[in-house]
Amino acid sequence: MLASATVRVMSPEEIAARAGGEVPFLRGPASGAFAERQMRLRQLAAGHPMADFLGFIAEVARAQQARLAAFPPVPVPDAAALERAGASGRPALSAVDWPRDPAWRDAARALAADLAGSAPAPARAVLARLAEAGDDWLEAQADCLLTGVMRGLDLATAPLVAAALQVYWTHLVSEVQRLHGGGATQAFGRPDDPTGCPCCGSGPTASVTRSQGGALGQRYLHCALCGTEWHLPRAKCSHCQSTRAIAYHSLDAAGSDEDGSARAAQATIQAESCEDCGHYLKIVHTDRDPFVDPVADDLATVTLDLLVSEQGLRRHGVNLMLLYGEPDPDGAPPPGGS
Description:
Blueprint: E1 2-6, H1 12-18, E2 26-27, H2 33-45, H3 51-69, H4 79-88, H5 103-116, H6 121-132, H7 135-147, H8 158-180, H9 184-187, E3 204-212, E4 215-223, E5 229-231, E6 246-251, H10 260-266, E7 269-274, E8 279-285, H11 294-299, H12 302-309, E9 314-315
Parallel strand pairs: 3-8, 8-9
Antiparallel strand pairs: 1-6, 2-5, 3-4, 4-5, 6-7, 7-8
Helix pairs in contact: 2-3, 3-5, 3-8, 5-6, 5-8, 7-8
């Protein structure tokens, strides 16, 4: 069942004052992010109704970590390009406009080969299809995923194509940070759209609260593509920026006699909704469980999505490991073709 609560969230000014004005705007992707996700997925899979799916995505995360560690050198923006992007309020590594290096396609095929041995039987045919897909088809699938166009998207292979794109963009952001020094805050500017990733412009999968020094419980949006996290005060809706009516929803045990609203306000995984725009985005709290992962915990709480959607709320953000929609018959690639 669904428990809901309306919680007073401090104003942006109160949040800044409490944090002492020292809240980092950006948190770049960690070098071991996929390995940490793999461990969290395995933890969540134990006894879960979706154990097989979560276990397979854990294997995908393991393979992603291996691909990230072995990713070859690829072009990244130079200092002048970063400065131009920052001055214009655009992400320097735009998911839509950045010219993709062919290395991401090699990563996709390597992921398919890596997973073939451990994948469940129903997934092996999908992996074989991905391994044999032509360059043009892979690029067309990437275009669909990165622009949000479902027509022509092969939903069966989409999470694996997305996994390779995640590795590629995580590598790009990490390389920019390494080459230009000072971390992501100095390398990337603040975009005009505060709901999009400052590095690649993609939307969030979920948000996560993090504490650092005196800055307690700061909300960051977690990029669905490159894994970068950027700060957005909790007083604002992550979709429309409204500060008027924010509510929190969480899963609750059926038939519980206790106060569901109190538990909803303190739940580790919540759906944060906005009355003004009718959208929601999940939020995970590291102060309540230090091992939460925005992607993994989002996948493990699909029931929360279903219950919240029954309230008429629409999801803001995407998890590239679990896409919804009608399969497109034009999406399946011809073996070895384009």
